[in-house]
Amino acid sequence: MYSTVYYSPKGRMTLVASDSALLGAWFDEQKHCGGNLLSAITHQTETPLLLAARVWLDEYFAGHHPDAMPPLAPVGTLFRLAVWNCLSQIPYGTTTTYGALSKLLNSQGITACPQAVGSAIAHNPIVIFIPCHRVIGANGTLTGYAAGLPIKTYLLELEGLCSHSAS
Predict the structure, then answer these.
(1) Is residue 73 part of a domain?
(2) Could you tell me if residue 67 is inside a domain?
(3) Structure pTM?
(4) Number of domains in the chain
(5) For the segment 130-163, what is each residue's pLDDT rounded down to a tens digit?
(6) In the chain, N or C terminus with fewer CB closer than 10 Å?
(7) Residue 56 sits in the same domain as residue 87
(8) Do both 92 and 52 map to the same domain?
(9) Could you give the residue numbers annotated as active site?
(10) Which domain holds residue 82?
């Protein structure tokens, strides 16, 4: 596995990839970051896939909706993978709620309460690419973000959404 550092407008990020997919992207100081990926890194180098991820992030942080998403391969339980798949379907510049995701998963035969969805979201190993920042509380307030609410607010504003209040 390979890793590189990316300097975003909101701080340093670590990107981790295999030969075929991005496995991790997180901010330094983020809760639940890295996990087993950190011990599996064998090279700190720029690969074509990591370069593609960096280009994607450059475009995103420039306020654009990047087109060419690098291949993603998050590692997690079947439930977490289902939640992260739902997150990947949230369109750029829109939000949803924990409750709405819970209902969507339940409609797919996956038992999920909003709290379980929130826990899976908190362990998202590929932030921004898998847009967990687009999930807000039922009353429209910002709740929980492993990298911190100021970063969540910044990302939502970057996507052209109205300012939200953190709770």
Answers:
(1) no
(2) no
(3) 0.90
(4) 2
(5) 999 999 998 888 888 888 899 999 999 999 986 5
(6) C
(7) no
(8) no
(9) 132
(10) 78-158
Q: Tens digit of pLDDT for each residue in 16-33?
A: 999 999 999 999 887 767
Task: Find tokens 């750029």 and name the residue.
Answer: 92
Q: Are both 83 and 50 inside the same structural domain?
A: no
Residues 87 and 144 in one domain: yes
Three-state SS for the chain is: CEEEEEEECCEEEEEEECCCCEEEEEECCCCCCCCHHHHHCCEECCCHHHHHHHHHHHHHHCCCCCCCCCCECCCCCHHHHHHHHHHHCCCCCCCEEHHHHHHHHHHCCCCCCHHHHHHHHHCCCEECCECHHHEECCCCCECCCCCCHHHHHHHHHHCCCCCCCEC
Q: The tokens of 163 are what?
A: 């300012």
Confidence of residue 167 (pLDDT cuts 50, 70, 90): very low
